[in-house]
UniProtKB/TrEMBL annotation:
One of its GO terms (molecular function) is dolichyl-phosphate beta-D-mannosyltransferase activity. Residues 10-170 form the Glycosyltransferase 2-like domain. SUPFAM superfamilies: Nucleotide-diphospho-sugar transferases. The chain crosses the membrane at residues 234-258, 270-292. It comes from the Bacteria. This is Dolichol-phosphate mannosyltransferase.
Length: 322
């Protein structure tokens, strides 16, 4: 079978040790491809899996012209993996979805309908989350609230990375090469015509979460630092408030010095003030460090990822670096 003409739809699916869910995923994707109203490609981005996922997916990309497979040279993380897939998407509409079927492939048809209506970004909004622990739900809720408060752009709540974007948006996205990525925020920042479709999020179809607390915290920190300078401003306000208090205290001491005969300057208060001020100082330095760290990260100018292997692409190159 020859390669089909340029696809209308590109589905980008990040994969990190997902062998348990692959048979079901491939089945559901096949069904989705049949249901779509035009030619589609599925791009699997293997984010450095160490299980059998690479073998299964590369085989699928070889056998079936609708499937493609890219392997990153190591685990770069979910946000970079989806970027790598989007970079290689050639469809008019690009859909990003998780491998574990928590993002139901059938919802893509609804997204496509919205896209046909003229929307350029269609994101999937969760009405509920099942099969996820209380802790995950509570922390996610807290994070979205905080982000809502702090972010300089409006980032929709309960929206993950499951979304459809138009080719035009993809072109804009490709120009944003920041290293510490919070992709859902980047789309919110971009604007264009956006809308939501809603769904009830099911538990993972198989396997375990690839987002341990450590990765979740990193994502949350990226989201807040990338889209808000509130922490910096907080340091400024706290610093000013503390200085004001210190001056007030100094005034009190002067008054006491004039009014009280035997004023013994207690060294404890001195110690308290010194400690407080150096604490505040340290906090501000810490916050500056956060931002300086990011500048450092950008200045390094490394590519976002390296590609180890490609299968099933038009140019037929099996191994090349991006
Ligand atoms: N994933 C990835 N790289 C990672 C972690 C996750 O490509 O370092 C993929 C994973 O295979 C899945 C998606 O990102 O397709 C979402 O991960 P997961 O379902 O484990 O996250 P959760 O739904 O638990 O937040
Ligand atoms: Mg999941």
């Amino acid at each position: 079978m020859s390669k089909q003409s340029r696809p209308i739809y590109s589905l980008v699916v990040p994969i990190y040790n997902e062998e348990a869910v692959l048979p079901l995923l491939l089945h559901r994707l096949d069904r989705l491809l049949e249901a779509l109203d035009g030619p589609a490609e599925v791009i699997f981005v293997d984010d450095g899996s160490r299980d059998c996922s690479p073998i299964v997916l590369a085989a699928r990309a070889r056998d079936n012209p609708s499937y493609r497979y890219i392997r990153l040279s190591r685990n770069f993380g979910h946000q970079v993996a989806i970027t790598a897939g989007m970079d290689r998407a050639s469809g008019d509409a690009v859909i990003v979805m998780d491998a574990d079927l928590q993002d139901p492939p059938e919802l893509v048809l609804e997204m496509v309908a919205k896209w046909r209506e003229g929307y350029e970004i269609v994101y999937a909004q969760r009405l509920s989350r099942e099969g996820e622990g209380r802790f995950k739900k509570a922390t996610a809720d807290l994070f979205y609230r905080l982000l809502d408060r702090l972010a300089s752009v409006e980032i929709p709540r309960n929206v993950g990375d499951f979304r459809l974007i138009d080719r035009k948006v993809l072109a804009a996205f490709s120009t944003m090469r920041e290293k510490d990525r919070f992709v859902r925020g980047m789309f919110a920042w971009m604007g264009f015509k956006q809308t939501a479709v809603t769904f009830h999020r099911q538990p993972r179809a198989a396997g375990e979460t690839k987002y341990p607390l450590r990765k979740m915290l990193r994502l949350a920190a990226n989201g807040i630092v990338s889209f808000s300078d509130a922490p910096l401003r907080l340091a400024l306000w706290v610093g000013m408030a503390v200085s004001a208090l210190a001056m007030l205290y100094a005034a009190c001491v002067v008054v006491m010095w004039f009014t009280q005969a035997h004023l013994v300057p207690g060294w404890s208060s001195t110690v308290v003030i010194t400690a407080l001020l150096s604490g505040i100082n340290m906090m501000m330095t810490g916050i500056m460090g956060l931002y300086v760290g990011r500048i450092h990260n950008e200045v390094k100018g490394r590519p976002l990822y390296l590609v180890d292997q490609r299968v099933g692409f038009e140019d037929g190159a099996e191994a090349m670096a991006a």
